[in-house]
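Student: I would love a firmer grasp of how sequence relates to backbone shape in proteins. I am handing you a single protein, as its sequence and its fold in token form. I am told such tokens are a discrete way to write the fold. I hope you can help me see how the letters and the tokens relate. Take your time, and here it is.
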Amino acid sequence: MPGMDATDLVDAVEADYQTELSRLGSSKSIYADTGGDLNPDRVLGAMADATHHAGATLAAWAESGDADDVFADAADRLETQYAAIPGELDGHEPGDEPVAVAEMGAADDLASRYGALVGWSLVAQRKAGQVTGYFTGQADPQTAGLVREFGEDFEAVRAAALEAIAAQSLDAAAAATAAGDVVEAAYDEYVATLEAQGVNPKPVC
């Protein structure tokens, strides 16, 4: 992506991964995350798992001496989200780390870490939008409103990461590649999980 700067990064990733992001924001994404068990506790439990593991990765980055306040702020936001997720969170024991979070955690330089955070936020925001719709359909406006507010956090951490890339004159193309890798990892897990359940991952619901 020659000549890219931070202001182009999100547009480029969303254009390159339009289909993947659309499907990750579909109702089938919840079906995949819950193993097909669409009850409120499982939906919240899947969100809690992702939030916990992503927050732990960001907290480790913040403590590594490699970063400014961006990762610490993002970790704090996810810790607050995790504490706010009701239901399954009572006595919640985190499950396996989602593939997208593992891919984010594999980023090993500052530009790639900022980019991976951008990619993860794009996925998380779309999933949260679908969870909001799920709880609206469950006639649970309180939980729907809570999850809707998480979207503001995802926008804030994405904006902070992009600002840091620009302010530190980091390689925006490398950041975009890392962002795309996270989206692709999330999508690959989505496809593999649905196919294992005998569900066609392609049509968007």
Remarks:
- The radius of gyration is 16 Å.
- Residues 6-196 form a domain with the Heme Oxygenase; Chain A fold (CATH 1.20.910).
- The chain has nine helices and no strands.
- The mean pLDDT is 92.
